[in-house]
């Protein structure tokens, strides 16, 4: 019986990967070359302006793309506001009080609409904004595959279940990434996005007070801004990378090697398990991390896109047409 279910699971995964591959095959790096030739300049200008106002915004835009792709594919569903008939993803546990940058996406969309009305999807805008955020903050660049269309609906339950929480152990992380067609190497590389951005006290309180696989001085530093008692300072922020929180570099991996990962899920990548060697390699070779991260971002962008006649091109990213 167990063998049957293992076989059935393997077949299901194989079919899902075929569907992802067949859909992503319709994406291309020159999708808007004729219909919106100024797309890249328009998006990058708006992202650059937003990051100049607040350096943290780069991490927030990158996170929006992650959280979009991990819930029913890269379809812009995270951007939809709740309606009387739909509870969207913004109120899900992984996003509530933490997902941000929606106003910036609105600004980018407005600028793109002026350049080429009703042509570029919100899902594609997220993909380009994520790439530009990384590049502007000193990280790698890559050619973004485009041609996604926007979902007409969003799912609160899918967001609650699809995005790995900061309490995840290594096996859970590997399993979730593998289910989306991403390898364990992709998991480690993409986790390197935590070289920028901040986390709320609620996401790391248990780690800094209860776990032993962390540097004691680091724990004391973080405890200074995150009280032990639940409800006290819940929204207080700490940088995921203590050293260079607004520079996209490989310091995140150096911190893991030194047991200074802020989140439980971060430190799981270097805790005596199968991913230790990859973390160590990235901590010593920033070029290797940069190239693997860029390649993994392209693969993540291939997760179940809506293409062809599926979905729509939203005029306003917050609501369906």
Tell me what the structure shows:
There is one protein chain. The longest helix has 23 residues, at 2-24. Helices cover 50% and strands 2% of the residues. With 321 residues, it is mainly α. It has helices spanning 2-24, 39-53, 57-69, 102-115, 122-136, 156-162, 170-179, 184-191, 201-210, 216-223, 251-257, 264-267, 276-284, 286-301; strands at residues 198-200, 237-239. Residues 1-12 and 18-23 have low confidence and may be disordered. Helix 3 (57-69) crosses helix 5 (122-136). It has 14 helices and two strands; from the N terminus they run ααααααααβααβαααα. The chain has a two-stranded antiparallel sheet with strand order 1-2.
Features:
14 helices, 321 residues, mainly alpha, two-stranded antiparallel sheet, globular, disordered N terminus
- Overall radius of gyration: 19 Å
What is the helix fraction of residues, given as a range? 40-55%
Low-pLDDT windows of residues:
1-12, 18-23
Q: From the structure provided, what is the oligomeric state, counting identical versus distinct chains?
A: single chain
* Topology, number of strands: 2
State the strand order across the main sheet: 1-2
Q: Helix- and strand-based class?
A: mainly alpha
Residue-averaged pLDDT: 93
**Strand-residue fraction?**
under 5%
What's the order of the H and E elements? HHHHHHHHEHHEHHHH
Give the number of helices. Answer: 14
What distance separates the N and C termini?
A: 48 Å
Give the overall silhouette.
globular
Sketch the major β-sheet. 2 strands, antiparallel
């Amino acid at each position: 019986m167990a063998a049957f279910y293992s076989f059935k699971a393997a077949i299901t995964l194989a079919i899902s990967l075929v569907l992802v591959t067949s859909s992503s095959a319709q994406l291309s790096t020159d999708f808007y070359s004729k219909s919106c030739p100024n797309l890249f300049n328009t998006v990058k200008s708006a992202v650059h302006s937003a990051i100049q106002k607040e350096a943290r915004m780069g991490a927030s835009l990158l996170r929006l793309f992650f959280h979009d792709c991990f819930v029913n594919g890269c379809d812009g569903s995270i951007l939809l506001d709740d309606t009387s008939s739909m509870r969207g993803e913004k109120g899900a546990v992984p996003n509530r009080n933490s997902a941000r940058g929606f106003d910036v996406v609105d600004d980018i969309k407005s600028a793109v609409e002026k350049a080429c009305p009703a042509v570029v999807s919100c899902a594609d805008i997220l993909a380009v904004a994520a790439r530009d955020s990384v590049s502007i903050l000193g990280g790698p660049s890559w050619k973004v595959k485009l041609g996604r269309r926007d979902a007409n609906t969003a799912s609160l339950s899918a967001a609650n279940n699809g995005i790995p929480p900061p309490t995840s152990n290594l096996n859970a992380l590997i399993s979730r990434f593998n289910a989306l067609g991403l390898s364990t190497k992709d998991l480690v590389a993409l986790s390197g996005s935590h070289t920028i951005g901040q986390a709320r006290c609620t996401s790391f309180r248990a780690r800094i007070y209860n776990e032993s696989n962390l540097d004691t001085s680091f724990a004391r530093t973080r405890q200074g801004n995150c009280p032990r008692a639940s409800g006290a300072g819940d929204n207080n922020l700490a940088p995921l990378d203590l050293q260079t929180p607004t520079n996209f570099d490989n310091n995140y991996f150096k911190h893991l090697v030194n047991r200074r990962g802020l989140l439980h899920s971060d430190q799981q990548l270097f805790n005596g398990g199968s991913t230790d060697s990859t973390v160590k390699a990235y901590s010593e070779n920033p070029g290797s991390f940069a190239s693997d991260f860029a390649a993994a971002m392209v693969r993540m962008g291939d997760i179940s896109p809506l293409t062809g006649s599926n979905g729509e091109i939203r005029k306003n990213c917050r609501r369906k047409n």
